[in-house]
């Protein structure tokens, strides 16, 4: 069997997960479900697939630091291809495919988004091997997830006839996000959710780009030819990359090719696209509550509460979302989670920078409370930043700290009897209470 090259696309900022996710701290690098980011979980998921030769990350310059730090946290070497500008998914995928083809003409690419949640990695790995085998036969395979509810936030796939040994099926049609009535009909008719993850031979995809979008193919091949790696990081040539048409992979190839196939996937999947999806993917108590940070809940049910800033107390409510950041608080009904994008669009229209970036800069300190007896500070540290913490009580709200030879994760409360050096693991947010 051909070698497999996972290619993880690491762009976007997750507008619907505001105020936690913004351009300066995108959702794929946040630890929203469990103790690892969705990016880290994606890397670890593909690392365990038999036949993987090299993991390739495609990202923008602003996110390189996140990728380097978070792959170091999970001790996984990767190759990082840096886009000089965002030109939608087709140029990015094509550049990665051209890179793989140049190093391994028979290589199979497993193209994945960095911000998806898959609860059963073993089932995913089996599905990936099946899809890779079909890709080796010349098909471009997408993962079609069995729907659990008539969701209106996903695109769907209508599967057609069985192909090869029946492990995959033709794609009879890709369909856009439906309304509620249509989604209910799709479930009855056996449609699948379009996960937006693919497997294909690098050479096959480049051939389809040559047929349908020659500018994308030529730009990708030029980028691969000119690429040099320094410490595992390669920056795609800006002039060559700019020659590619700005277009998505779906429009460029998937909706035009005759080689599209779908591998039905039995794993539980979410694109973590909004706060209701974060609640669904989170571990919940007996009342259906999920929370993280300095939070107390009383007489609540079905709530998601997350704080990386102030203490949050929630009493006597059901089915709501509360997200508290140092500079912004969101409160909404869980069923209205998709409307967060409308809120953010309104902030952008007003010119509010809070829509896109957090007010507290990396490596900044803000005093929250100061009395004669003590001071409470909110500190934010960039990934890998060296800190000197005072004699104080330190609570880790987000990220982690390495100090005194140990590693402390989010939620830890650490009494420090004396000044202590530390290093931030990921983007760390700390609550520091010190005597005056």
What is the gist of this entry?
The protein is an alpha/beta fold.
What does this 3D model show about the protein?
The protein has 436 residues and is of the alpha/beta class. Helix 3 crosses helix 7 (214-226) and helix 6 crosses helix 7. The chain folds into three domains: 4-270, Spore Coat Polysaccharide Biosynthesis Protein SpsA, Chain A (Alpha-Beta Complex); 284-355, no CATH class; 364-435, Jelly Rolls, CATH 2.60.120. The termini are far apart. It has helices at residues 38-47, 64-73, 89-103, 121-136, 180-188, 202-212, 214-226, 238-242, 249-254, 275-281, 340-349, and strands spanning 4-10, 56-60, 79-83, 108-113, 117-118, 140-145, 156-163, 168-175, 192-201, 233-235, 260-265, 269-270, 290-292, 295-298, 304-307, 312-315, 320-325, 328-333, 364-370, 374-381, 386-389, 392-403, 406-409, 413-416, 420-435. Strands 19, 20, 21, 22, 23, 24 and 25 form a seven-stranded antiparallel β-sheet that branches. Strands 6-9-7-8-11 form a five-stranded mixed barrel.
């Amino acid at each position: 069997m051909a070698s497999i090259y996972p290619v993880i696309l690491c762009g976007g900022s997750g507008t619907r997960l505001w105020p936690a996710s913004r351009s300066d701290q995108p959702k794929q690098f946040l630890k929203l479900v469990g103790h690892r980011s969705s990016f880290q979980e994606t890397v670890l998921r593909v690392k365990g697939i038999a036949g993987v030769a090299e993991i390739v990350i495609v990202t923008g310059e602003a996110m390189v630091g996140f990728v380097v730090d978070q792959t170091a946290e999970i001790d996984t070497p990767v190759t990082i291809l840096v886009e000089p500008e965002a030109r939608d998914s087709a140029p990015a995928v094509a550049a990665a495919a051209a890179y793989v083809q140049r190093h391994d003409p028979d290589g199979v690419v497993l193209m994945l988004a960095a911000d998806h949640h898959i609860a059963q990695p073993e089932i995913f790995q089996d599905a990936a091997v099946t899809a890779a085998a079909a890709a080796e036969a010349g098909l471009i395979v997408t993962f079609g997830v069995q729907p659990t509810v008539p969701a209106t936030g996903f695109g769907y796939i209508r599967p057609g006839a069985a192909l090869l040994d029946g492990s995959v099926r033709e794609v009879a049609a890709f369909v856009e996000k439906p309304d509620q009535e249509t989604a209910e009909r799709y479930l009855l008719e056996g449609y699948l959710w379009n996960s937006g993850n693919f497997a294909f031979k690098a050479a096959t995809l480049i051939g389809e780009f040559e047929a349908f979008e020659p500018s994308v193919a030529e730009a990708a091949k030029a980028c691969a030819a000119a690429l040099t790696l320094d410490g595992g990081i390669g920056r795609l040539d800006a002039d060559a990359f700019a020659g590619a048409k700005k277009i998505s992979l779906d429009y460029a190839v998937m909706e035009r090719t005759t080689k599209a196939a779908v591998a039905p996937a039995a794993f539980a999947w979410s694109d973590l696209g909004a706060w209701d999806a974060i609640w669904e993917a989170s571990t919940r108590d007996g009342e259906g509550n999920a929370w993280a940070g300095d939070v107390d809940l009383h007489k609540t049910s079905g709530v998601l509460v997350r704080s990386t800033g102030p203490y949050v107390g929630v009493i006597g409510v059901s089915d709501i979302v509360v997200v508290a950041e140092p500079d912004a608080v969101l409160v909404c009904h869980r069923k209205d989670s998709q409307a967060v994008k409308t809120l953010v669009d309104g902030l952008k229209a007003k010119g509010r920078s809070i829509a896109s970036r957090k007010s507290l800069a990396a490596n900044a300190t803000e005093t929250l409370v100061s009395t004669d007896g003590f001071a409470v500070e909110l500190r934010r540290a960039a990934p890998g930043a060296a800190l000197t913490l005072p004699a104080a009580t330190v609570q880790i709200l987000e990220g982690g700290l390495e100090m005194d030879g140990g590693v402390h994760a989010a939620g830890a409360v650490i009494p420090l009897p004396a000044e202590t050096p530390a290093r931030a693991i990921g983007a760390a947010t700390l609550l520091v209470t010190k005597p005056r």
